[in-house]
Model the fold of this input.
Amino acid sequence: MGSTNTEQEAVMAADTSAVTARSAGASAPKAACRPTRADAARNYDKLIAAARALYADEGIEVAMEKVAGAAGVGIGTLYRHFPNRTALVEAAFREQATEIVSQGWQLVENGPADAALAGVIESYMRSAATKRGMKEAILAASGGDAPVFLESRENSRKLMEAIVTAGQEQGLFRTDVTAIELQRIAGGLSMACNPDDTPEVNGRLISIVLDGLRPA
Done:
């Protein structure tokens, strides 16, 4: 019984310390790593999912307490994983970027390169409407060379290299097209898209790009 009380007191102390550090303006680590312990990893994943959903609906200024409540955890648990808002925003951005690239690899490994490219660009365009200021917040806090940006760009570049190589080998893309060009096209379309655009509108834009990539 005494051991249980001691454990509970330790958890409460950790919660208090996390909130105190946040109130004192403790800086975020360069990257919030997913924990290896099963229960901590589950809480981490629930917080990321809750943050992404709330950011898409309400923007990144949503209260941290609301994120914790939506994830079904205490505020101390949130601050143990993410000592401030920037750390949570970066983790949500990283999760979203990683998800798009992971899905893109599945597409390029299981189908034609033009369909893979269309799927990746569509994902970037769709995600642009749900980021709701995440990129701007990271830029303001860490600049354009923030580790999360460098990581996502490199992962995207590697994916685009695989897509363009496969597309040229399959005779679907012009031989003078480069991965960097595809990366810039995808980024440009995601920046230019309107949150109110329908899938049909986005699909037409992607179709025009694909037509321009095909061999003469």
User: Anything to note?
Assistant: Residues 1-30 have pLDDT under 50 and may be disordered.
